[in-house]
Amino acid sequence: MTNRETLAARREQAVTDEVLASFDGAGPRLREVLRSLVRHLHGFAREVRLSEQEWETAIGFLTRAGHLTDDRRQEFILLSDVLGLSMLTVAINEPQVPGATEATVFGPFFHDEAPEIPLGGDVARGAAGTPCYVSGQVRDTGGKPVAGARIDVWEADEDGFYDVQYADGRSAGRAWLRTGPAGEYRFWSVLPAPYPIPHDGPVGDLLKAAGRGPMRPAHLHFMVTAPGYRRLITHLFLAGDPHLGDDAVFGVKESLVVEPVPHEAGPAPDGTEPAGAWSSIAFDLVLVPEPA
């Protein structure tokens, strides 16, 4: 290393050291996180020799993401998803308990204003698609049924759009219900379809520049909560979907792939008789108890 290179390295390190020292007064965890962030962020800039033009482009990218984000669209979660940060965070925090249902990404389309439906009710509530009867049991890793657990469900319609992506303010394809006395759950919805994540913004530009596609395989979202248990956020993916191997957000896990059973018009398990073809999915959700 030449003298000039040594002086440049010292000058760069001095900037990093000064920023690290500025967090001396922060609380222990905040100090740990911010110092690590600074070390890695500054290290990245040094490694790629970040130009001022590239820095300006990055700031513009994040600014565009902020302008797009509102209560119906979360571009930053989308960015986290396509960079694999969401799934890495899941992997870091998911308890390694045999038999528990595996977790996957939360996604950008959840909102907490979904309506409650009764056990056996209709999640679709007008969403277009082939009717699908979904049922199973919520239990813990010891086999104990979890009665009264809250199950939030949301999904895209047959055209690949969530309700929040429509401009008319509709609420469809999302609802929540509680499990019965034996932990049982059941509801009607529609057979999910594959769809592209929103790619008309900066995240879409990133995927295009990288030669990556925006598609997600067909899936149903679940969030299960109950006192005394870890919250479970997961999906059910449809077997045979062409995008199981190239999910834009890296969320597919083999244990979450299910095979829908097709049915002709006729009696369903709840006694109703759909006028046309319908499908059914059976899947048990297994929760991990919180430590005492």
Estimate the helix proportion, in percent: 25-40%
Give a short account of the largest sheet: 5 strands, mixed
The averaged pLDDT comes out at: 94
What distance lies between the first and last C-alpha atoms, to the nearest angstrom?
Answer: 57 Å
Instruction: Please state the overall shape, judged from the principal axes of the Cα atoms.
Output: elongated
Oligomer classification: single chain
SSE string = HHHHHEEEEEHEEEEEEE
Total strands: the figure is 12
Structural class: alpha/beta
**Which blocks of ≥5 consecutive residues have pLDDT under 50?**
none
* Rg over C-alpha atoms, rounded to the nearest angstrom: 23 Å
Total DSSP helices: 6
Task: Bin the strand percentage.
Answer: 15-25%
Written overview of the protein:
This protein is an alpha/beta fold and 292 residues long. 28% of the residues lie in helices and 20% in strands. It contains 6 helices and 12 strands. The strands form 3 sheets. Strands 1, 4, 10, 11 and 12 form a 5-stranded mixed β-sheet that branches. Strands 3-2-7-8-9 form a 5-stranded mixed β-sheet, with no helix packed on it. Strands 5-6 form a two-stranded antiparallel sheet. Strand 7 and strand 8 (232-238) form a beta hairpin. The longest helix is centred in the first third of the chain and has 21 residues, at 28-48. The radius of gyration is 23 Å and the shape is elongated. It starts with a helix and ends in a 5-residue tail after the last strand. 28% of the residues are buried. The model has no long low-confidence stretch (mean pLDDT 94).
